[in-house]
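Q: Please design a sequence for this.
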């Protein structure tokens, strides 16, 4: 079976930042991992070049739109090439083949009866390239996703019958619980669909920078809505609408997206595919957002990090390692030079780099760089067993996109190696004339390094090639089979001396982020906490029990953009029930501090919408003039334990 892995296609209204690099790194890592395992894998990335946003950016830059798009698209491509991203195709939505594929898809949807012409009247956010009904706007004007001002659009438009696919989508989510990863995000999507889907306006007449209508429609006033155009890239790249040359890769095995564009990929995209009678992707992996030193990155704050700037001073592979190690997939991550430097010094330089240096040094001293694994099993059965258990566990972490756990477990191999050296002290054995034992320990560690570098190679391909070169073997599918799957040890070989892989970093190598400006934005007024209120009315006990109170565990927590008060929480209520709660407690609790803590939840509240997001419960809290505190069980209780 083949694999098909995609990144979102990046808008060409600005240069790449580390958020873009992160998606690209995970997708590249996953691709390399599948290839290492011998899977036939196709990896797509590219640029999204149409729409009002790009047209306006080009105008601001005083350039013809195509020229502007060419320049920025090339800057993405050059960056990925410089970073040795192993893509099979870099698609541009201005490619002729892509445009033809989009027109073809439009015709198929139309022939299916899924496209009709009507009038669109509503609000449009150019930055998000999204239509919103008035009820979802903040203060009747601002975009619920990015907070920018929306404009009123009233124009003739073709619509896609999204509403027709509501039930089929809900069925798909429930039949395929791993369709959206992390699973907690699925809840958000399901609630959105359950809230009712409106047909989607899929053409625009007010501007021209888009894919033209197919000639068969005889309606050249319209251009395609940018999200219809963009989402279809995942199949036009494979030859849809042309020669279907690579359509055998469809359906995609993993489509990586940021959490902000999950809705487009988990609702619109599958509905488009159903309309085209094509299978749906196996899964959509939605990652979190990166901040810098705890602050949201934005051009206006001047704190956006260019990946090239980081890579130039710290090394692109170190950056890959840091980003994939630092955050659990799906959660937000913070880029700080301190955290980055700590990981370089302690994990890369100390744990991995030093181990290799020690092996080079000891093998040189004791055996003229010759390594023989012949006695490893005899003296190090315990270590070999422990190593194999770890190696066996790795695949499921990577396949479930848990890169941080994958690397955390992988690093345990280096502890085994370091511990074996301390415990067996080969230098003492040499003095005691037990050379075979000393050499067995050196060979054990050489084998640990070899196996670890195979498994680390998808994350750090160049660095691990240097390790492999020092250990005289090649990282590829056949060494993966031999050393990892068949658990064999290296054969007799000579070590090559290589310079230290990870020089220590003592001081930050880049200028620090500019100091943060206080957030001047007006906050929303709504809060979802239980306010203390004196009750005069006595109630029956039965009335009290109508309220379902439960112990919950916060499994995800994040700040709601544009709100000073709201945190968005995913709360595990046991038995697979995860509820999204918008809680007005941000002034009193940080999102991180709530992670994995217990809370008391009103679990049977009717869902309510706040700032365009659904809230399905309330947290119990007490608030007085000193502030607010959450009510929590005195001792940990299982998620879902009833309170009362
Ligand atoms: N063009 C659309 C995607 C169309 S896919 C058919 C788009 N482009 S984008 O350039 O704005 O964003 C691309 C990706 O970068 C998104 O997945 C988005 O989540 C991600 N990120 C943008 N800022 C980010 C961070 N600060 N951190 C992590 N990822 C972020 O949306």
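A: Design:
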């Amino acid at each position: 079976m083949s694999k098909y892995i995609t990144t979102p296609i990046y808008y060409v209204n600005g240069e790449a930042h580390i958020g873009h690099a992160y998606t690209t790194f995970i997708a590249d890592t996953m691709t390399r991992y599948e290839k290492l395992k011998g899977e036939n894998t196709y990896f797509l990335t590219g640029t999204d070049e149409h729409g009002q946003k790009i047209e306006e950016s080009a105008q601001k830059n005083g350039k013809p739109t195509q020229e502007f798009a060419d320049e920025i698209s090339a800057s993405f491509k050059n960056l990925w090439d410089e970073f040795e991203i192993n893509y099979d195709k870099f698609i541009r939505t201005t490619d002729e083949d892509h445009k033809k594929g989009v027109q073809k898809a439009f015709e198929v949807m139309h022939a299916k009866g899924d496209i009709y012409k009507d009038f669109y009247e509503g609000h449009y956010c150019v930055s998000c390239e999204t239509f919103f009904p008035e009820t979802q706007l903040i203060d009747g004007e601002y975009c619920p996703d990015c907070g920018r001002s929306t404009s009123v659009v009233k124009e003739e438009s073709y619509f896609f019958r999204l509403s027709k696919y509501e039930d089929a989508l809900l069925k798909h989510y429930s039949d395929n619980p791993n369709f959206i990863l992390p699973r907690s995000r699925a809840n958000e999507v399901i609630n959105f669909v359950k809230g009712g889907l409106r047909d989607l306006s899929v053409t625009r007449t007010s501007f021209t920078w888009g894919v033209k209508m197919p000639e068969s429609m005889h309606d050249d006033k319209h251009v395609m809505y940018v999200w219809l155009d963009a989402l279809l890239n995942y199949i036009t790249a494979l030859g849809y609408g042309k020669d279907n040359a690579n359509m055998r890769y469809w359906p995609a095995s993993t489509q990586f997206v940021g959490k902000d564009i999950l809705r487009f990929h988990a609702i619109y995209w599958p509905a488009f595919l159903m309309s085209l009678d094509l299978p749906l992707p196996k899964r959509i992996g939605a990652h979190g957002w990166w901040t810098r030193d705890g602050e949201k990155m934005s051009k206006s704050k001047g704190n956006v990090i260019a990946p090239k700037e980081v890579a130039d001073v710290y090394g692109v592979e170190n950056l890959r390692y840091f980003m994939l190690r630092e955050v659990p997939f799906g959660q937000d991550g913070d880029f700080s030079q301190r955290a980055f430097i700590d990981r370089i010094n302690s994990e890369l330089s100390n744990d991995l780099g030093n181990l290799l240096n020690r092996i080079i040094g000891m093998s040189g001293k004791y055996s003229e760089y010759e390594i023989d694994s012949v006695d490893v099993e005899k003296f190090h059965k315990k270590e070999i067993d422990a190593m194999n258990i770890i190696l066996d566990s790795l695949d499921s972490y990577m396949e479930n996109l848990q890169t941080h756990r994958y690397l955390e477990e992988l690093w345990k191999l280096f502890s085994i190696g370091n511990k074996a050296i301390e415990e067996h002290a080969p230098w003492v054995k040499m003095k005691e004339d037990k050379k075979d034992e000393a050499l067995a320990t050196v060979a054990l560690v050489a084998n640990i390094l070899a196996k670890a570098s195979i498994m680390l190679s998808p994350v750090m391909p160049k660095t691990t090639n240097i390790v492999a070169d020092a250990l005289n073997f090649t990282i590829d599918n056949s060494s993966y089979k031999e050393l990892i799957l068949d658990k064999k040890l290296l054969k007799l070989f000579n070590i090559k001396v290589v310079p230290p892989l990870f020089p220590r970093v003592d001081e930050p190598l880049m200028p620090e982020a500019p100091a943060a400006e206080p957030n001047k934005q007006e906050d929303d007024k709504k809060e979802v906490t239980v306010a203390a209120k004196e009750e005069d009315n006595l109630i029956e006990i039965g009335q009290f029990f109508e309220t379902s109170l439960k112990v919950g565990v916060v499994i995800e927590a994040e700040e709601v953009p544009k709100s000073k008060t709201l945190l968005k929480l995913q709360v595990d209520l046991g038995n697979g029930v995860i509820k999204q709660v918008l809680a007005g407690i941000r002034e009193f609790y940080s999102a991180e501090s709530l992670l994995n803590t217990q809370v008391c939840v009103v679990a049977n509240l009717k869902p309510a919408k706040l700032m365009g997001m659904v809230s399905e419960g309330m947290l119990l809290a007490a608030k007085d003039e000193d502030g607010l505190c959450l009510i929590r069980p005195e001792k940990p209780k299982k998620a879902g334990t009833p309170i009362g």
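Q: Thanks. Anything notable?
A: The pocket of 5'-O-[(L-methionyl)-sulphamoyl]adenosine is lined by residues 8-11, 19-20, 22-23, 48, 230-231, 233, 257-258, 260-261, 289-290, 297 (CB under 6 Å). DSSP finds 20 helices and 28 strands in the chain.
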